[in-house]
Amino acid sequence: MTAHFLGDTAVLTGRTLRHVTRSLDTVITTAVTPIAIMLLFVYVFGGAIRTGTASYVDYMLPGILLITIASGISYTAFRLFTDMQSGIFERFQSMPIARSGVLWAHVLTSLAANAVSVAAVIGVALLMGFRSGAGVGAWLAVTGILVLFTLALTWIAVIPGLAAKSVDGAGAFSYPLVFLPFISSAFVPTGTMPGPVRAFARHQPVTSIVDTIRALLAERPVGGGLWTALAWCAGILVVAYVFAGIVYRRRIS
């Protein structure tokens, strides 16, 4: 059964990856917006922002990476919506393939496409002066957090991709996710914010994830923030996965 699921998922993932490689503009677009934000904040606003770090690009990069992922998962919803409208799901149901493999193919494609976008953003950040003395272990930890965050947001994207009534509705859900890092510690310390905004910023998931990645890259102690970040990612992932499964079963029943 497991081999059947893995084989079907691999074949279906190859199909969705081919769609992505035929429209690389989606990957490029995903990376362009975060890069533009990074350039704007570093070269226009950076001189006026005090973060207590030597390099502002070092400070803001973790938040930019999360924005990159939040931008990228909107295309997952778009691809799912397109498949739903084309009737391909109904054709898959008539074939002897694992039903969940169809969704996992889109999720794994999202991981691959977002990995390319994140790598492009990091490359530009290096050209802008980003430096980190973090070792292999720290970079692996950062990669793990980003993968978990991507999975969590991708399963959120699956829900509107299956349930939306229009292509605009399928992609619009990502706007709040892209905006969320701006009300966190991603660009400025939360202590500089007014009371209610500061309280929200300190207790929303992006802040703990950004602070953990920043500490890992700066070779500082992570403390309990790591577990808070992992708990947020895992919690969102589990809830989104369950709801996506419910929506999927209703749509194909």
Automatic annotation (TrEMBL):
<dbReference type="GO" id="GO:0046677">
    <property type="term" value="P:response to antibiotic"/>
</dbReference>
<keyword id="KW-1003">Cell membrane</keyword>
<feature type="transmembrane region" description="Helical">
    <location>
        <begin position="61"/>
        <end position="81"/>
    </location>
</feature>
<protein>
    <recommendedName>
        <fullName>Transport permease protein</fullName>
    </recommendedName>
</protein>
<feature type="transmembrane region" description="Helical">
    <location>
        <begin position="226"/>
        <end position="248"/>
    </location>
</feature>
<dbReference type="InterPro" id="IPR047817">
    <property type="entry name" value="ABC2_TM_bact-type"/>
</dbReference>
<dbReference type="GO" id="GO:0043190">
    <property type="term" value="C:ATP-binding cassette (ABC) transporter complex"/>
</dbReference>
<dbReference type="GO" id="GO:0140359">
    <property type="term" value="F:ABC-type transporter activity"/>
</dbReference>
<dbReference type="InterPro" id="IPR000412">
    <property type="entry name" value="ABC_2_transport"/>
</dbReference>
<feature type="transmembrane region" description="Helical">
    <location>
        <begin position="27"/>
        <end position="49"/>
    </location>
</feature>
<feature type="transmembrane region" description="Helical">
    <location>
        <begin position="170"/>
        <end position="188"/>
    </location>
</feature>
<keyword id="KW-0813">Transport</keyword>
<dbReference type="Pfam" id="PF01061">
    <property type="entry name" value="ABC2_membrane"/>
</dbReference>
<keyword id="KW-0472">Membrane</keyword>
<comment type="similarity">
    <text>Belongs to the ABC-2 integral membrane protein family.</text>
</comment>
<feature type="transmembrane region" description="Helical">
    <location>
        <begin position="136"/>
        <end position="158"/>
    </location>
</feature>
<dbReference type="InterPro" id="IPR013525">
    <property type="entry name" value="ABC2_TM"/>
</dbReference>
<keyword id="KW-0046">Antibiotic resistance</keyword>
<keyword id="KW-1133">Transmembrane helix</keyword>
<feature type="transmembrane region" description="Helical">
    <location>
        <begin position="102"/>
        <end position="130"/>
    </location>
</feature>
<dbReference type="InterPro" id="IPR051784">
    <property type="entry name" value="Nod_factor_ABC_transporter"/>
</dbReference>
<feature type="domain" description="ABC transmembrane type-2">
    <location>
        <begin position="25"/>
        <end position="251"/>
    </location>
</feature>
<keyword id="KW-0812">Transmembrane</keyword>
